[in-house]
Amino acid sequence: MPSGTPEKKKIETNDGGAKIIPDAADGLACNGCRKAKLRCSRDRPYCLHCRKTALECVYETKRVKPGLKAGAVDNLHRRLDDLERRINEGESSSPNHEHTRCQRNHTVANDGIGESSARDVLALLAKELPKLVNAPKENINPSTAFSERRSKRKRLDEGLDTFNTAFLNEEPPLPEKQLLEAIVTSYFLHVHPWIPMIHQARFLQRFSNEMDQKQLLVILHAMILAASKFVPGAWAFARDERARKWVLYTSMESLSLENLQALTIVAFNDLGSGNAAKTWSVIGSLTRTVEYTQLAQEQEDSGHGSFCHPYESLPRTDDCTQLEERRRVFWNVFLLDRFCSVTMGWNTSLTSDDVYRRLPCDGHLWRKEKPVLTPYFGIWDKSRGRIGNPIEYVSRYPSPTQFGNDAELHTQARITALEGAISNVSTDMSTVGAFAYNIEATESMSRVMSYFLQQKTNMRDQSEISCWLTRFKELDLRLVHWKMLLPQKWKANPNLTRHVPLMDPNLTMAHVTHNTSMILLHQLIAYPPLHWGFRNRLPSSCSAEACYSAGTEIAAITEKYLGRSPAGSPIGSQYAFCLFIAARILLANWKYTPGNELPSEFWSLIHSLEEMSRRWTAFAEIPLEKHDIFTKYAVRLKQLQRLCATDQAFQMNVMDYTIDIRHDSLTTPADTYPRWSQVLQPAALQEMNLTLPNPPDSADFSTIPQIMLDQDFTGMDRIITFDDGSMFAASFDPGAAAW
């Protein structure tokens, strides 16, 4: 008899006979008829329908309790995901903009209905899950269950990926119009002076036009990230990390000027916020993108074109204002590339093979949309800049402050002769402003890193040592030359006939960067390693004095700038780096000069960093465990001061500033920083002593040039001081003060 055929029961009757009573299952239809919703003939062993369709006729004696219907669990998952998404959106939205969230979620009439829907979903889930758990196990096929679990996990993973993609495509909400206008105004007031690349008048004109607002969305959201902390009540729109990710994702989708500007704003904001680890990849992308968009080359028709014309992602234009805006976008990316190289000790990405650009014009000329012609800025050819090659052969294009014959600069010993050569310079610098001088000063600092500190030199080879010291003097003369070539209107004003009510941020940054370049160049000569056998033949006292003067002047300039700038105006990250280098060299001077006291300028620099941190934070609500770049520098300087004061064996290596700061967003305990006295310095000394066949002092270094010790070298005026008066003054045009 086939499986599942109902059995008949036999019972005895009162008269002693027997009666066959059919089982209760006889009244049930077979499974095939039930599924087909047909009237079953209940024939044995096969009913009429099963005989016609050749199906197995099975009669179930026990009905299975109904469980969850197919797709019910998936439906619950979808509803729960939708509920969770709505709750997250409600938490991320500002309480003052409830109407915006309600318009997005138009299916929810009010909060009460939303909560009711949530309770209904949870109640349904609680009701159905016990049925699923109590379902008969014998009716579950193991292979089918495993397949369902795998498909369920796959669907959940696919849903997560879809959610992430949908989130990146979903534009963050904009503030209401009045608050958004306040944020844009705050951007041009506080952020724009440090990255001047957006023409304010034209931007506001496009911002007021609804047709152009779509192209400006990515810039607007970048401005919100950078400037909302300076507007009361606007920090909620920049707090969410998803807003930053949306700007990055959108800016990477295509090549456009707006996307480059947005990424530059994000990089500037991340650096100041102490998230430099997130910034390096963005800067690397920017340096390549400005090449793809042809922003590294001047748009001019010349006879030196290539046979293969590169694809132009940006349309050509004859508008001088737009050309200047593109030029300034490139130079801001250029500054980020140089800052990354100097602070981290990495190679530069934008080289002389890529860059052929004019300097940006004066800010007030650009603001008034006046067409002017500025000089080209020469980038040195790094492939020809090895130690041993004179500086005169490393520049592909002449810089505006470069001599007609650099060999004469190298051979001149008298400062009077140097001044006489300066008078022969014919380059017209009247059309450039403070931003251009900041670019020049930053490139000078980068040259110290690329052409001196990063050069590999065998310090046991006398000829290489001589070439290395010659390069030192060449760069030193270059820096002195740059200071002496400043325009007459920014030169020394000993009688202080002109009061300086407002100090230009870019010009002040240029002067502070110049003094920092002097420190980076001279500090290795001032405090050479102990294993250098020729260290006694170096002009260490002269270099130490130059470093000390540069550090104290940076402290004085910064104190004056903070006192004469608006109380809420932030400071750029490069300025903070300069203060860190200045404070470290003052600490080294105190550590290695017996009988000296720690100068008060050291604590002035720390106080300035703390004030810069306060200005940067403004109205933002930052967790205590996160430090901005200014606080990181201040905390580390205090740790170094305590080590120098309490640990006599502590040796401070002046060249380890690149590894002295953790660039992630979280704070780091003091014991995780390297201790040079226990790790770096003894290892270096031991290694050098093992490799030298004779004691260092027994080597003959008499061939080292003595030209560095002459009176003209030691008497050069290298440092820019605040007593130079109007050298720091902003333009008389109030609108151009920050350009």
Automatic annotation (TrEMBL):
The chain crosses the membrane at residues 216-238. It comes from the Eukaryota. Residues 29-59 form the Zn(2)-C6 fungal-type domain. It is found in: Nucleus. SUPFAM superfamilies: Zn2/Cys6 DNA-binding domain (SSF57701). Keywords: Membrane, Metal-binding, Nucleus, Transcription, Transcription regulation, Transmembrane, Transmembrane helix. The keyword Transferase does not apply. One of its GO terms (biological process) is DNA-templated transcription. The keyword GTP-binding does not apply. One of its GO terms (cellular component) is nucleus. GO terms for molecular function: DNA binding; DNA-binding transcription factor activity, RNA polymerase II-specific; zinc ion binding. InterPro entries: TF_fung, XnlR_reg_dom, Zn2-C6_fun-type_DNA-bd_sf, Zn2Cys6_DnaBD. PROSITE patterns: ZN2_CY6_FUNGAL_1, ZN2_CY6_FUNGAL_2. PANTHER family: ZN(II)2CYS6 TRANSCRIPTION FACTOR (EUROFUNG), ZN(II)2CYS6 TRANSCRIPTION FACTOR (EUROFUNG)-RELATED. This is Zn(2)-C6 fungal-type domain-containing protein. It comes from Cucurbitaria berberidis CBS 394.84. The lineage of its organism: Eukaryota, Fungi, Dikarya, Ascomycota, Pezizomycotina.
